[in-house]
Amino acid sequence: MTTSSMAEQRDAILFSRYGLAFDCATLDQLVERALQQAATPQLYCTCNVNHLRLLQTNALFQEAYGKAAVVTVDGRPIRMLVRLQTRHDVPVVTGADLFPALLDKLRPGIDRPFFVASAPEAAQALAAQLVARGFAADAIGQDSPPYGFERDAAYSANLVGQIAALGTTHLFMGVGAPKSELWVARHFAELPPAHIFCVGAALDFSSQRKSRAPRWVQRMSLEWLHRMLSEPRRLVPRYAGDALFLAGILAGRRLAPIVPPRT
Q1: Tens-digit pLDDT profile for residues 38-95
Q2: Judging by beta carbons within 10 Å of its beta carbon (0-12, 13-18, 19+), is residue 129 exposed, middle or buried?
Q3: I need a surface site. Which of 47, 58, 59, 166 has the fewest CB within 10 A?
Q4: Sorting pLDDT into bands at 50, 70 and 90, what band is 169?
Q5: What span, in angstroms and rounded, lies between the C-alpha atoms of 150 and 129?
Q6: What DSSP character marks residue 193?
Q7: Are strands 42-47 and 195-198 parallel, antiparallel or unpaired?
């Protein structure tokens, strides 16, 4: 069996069981892909257990994922699940790893990034990092939308206009899931041919507005615990629901078909 046919077989198995065609590129390969000029908007989704759970019932989130050019496994629980149930291995590429790796590779005079952050301090800090590396200030876009902006047609139209006017090559959405993905899907046809990343807290981590778990915690696959302890009111209910969802999959639950393998 050829490498290509083996990959096709793996993708078919993963889609049949989990409803998604997970991209099996490594972090470095995805960064290199994201540095190529895009002819159309390219949406990158990093799928964690919570995303997978929301995808079972949220039709708009399903529509957003349906527009994705790349879907990665964001977190070891899904990777271990896939290994256990299918004997296939898929690389873990989290938004928290992908964003800084790509940010470090963006090129002054070539790339024109736009940051949509949860707080203005995060967007400003990221822009300052790039200016210090030689980027012109007017080659960087930034915005920190108010609560409920996704329901404000005028605000969204203005934001889309800013993104297009910049000639954005890389759009980074950091206003949370599924809000980021839903906003991108709603305005997909109006967005420029950019690489688009919905990476949540990654903007806060890279701007040092929030602290990511120490490396030793990440290596022990306990980053979820660090995050839960830092925001217990928000994350304890979410992680409890995710754990029950995982238990259902282990018990044999098949998931809704969302993103089939690309042919």
Answers
A1: 999 999 999 999 999 999 999 999 999 999 999 999 988 999 999 999 999 999 999 9
A2: middle
A3: 59
A4: very high
A5: 28
A6: S
A7: parallel
Q: Binning pLDDT at 50, 70 and 90, where does residue 4 land?
A: confident
Rounded Cα gap, residues 214 and 256, in angstroms: 35
pTM to 2 decimal places: 0.93
Q: Which two tokens stand for residue 17?
A: 């069981």
The distance of Cα 45 from the centroid of its chain, to the nearest Å, equals: 4
Q: Look up residue 96 and give its two tokens.
A: 């928290």
Distance CA 63, CA 77 (A): 24
The token duo for 176 is 């949370």
Which of 136, 144, 143 has the alpha carbon at shortest distance from 112?
Answer: 136
19: left (phi over 0), alpha (psi -120 to 50) or beta: left
How many CB atoms lie under 10 A from the CB of residue 12?
13
Q: Is the backbone of residue 131 left (phi > 0), alpha (psi -120 to 50) or beta?
A: alpha
- Asked if residue 173 lies in contact with residue 152, where contact means CB atoms within 8 angstroms, the answer is no
Nearest CA to 76 among 87, 90, 65, 88? 90
So where are the chain's domains? 10-200+215-225+232-250
Structure tokens, 258:
């969302």
Distance CA 81, CA 204 (A): 29
Please give the Cα distance from 206 to 197 (Å, whole number).
14
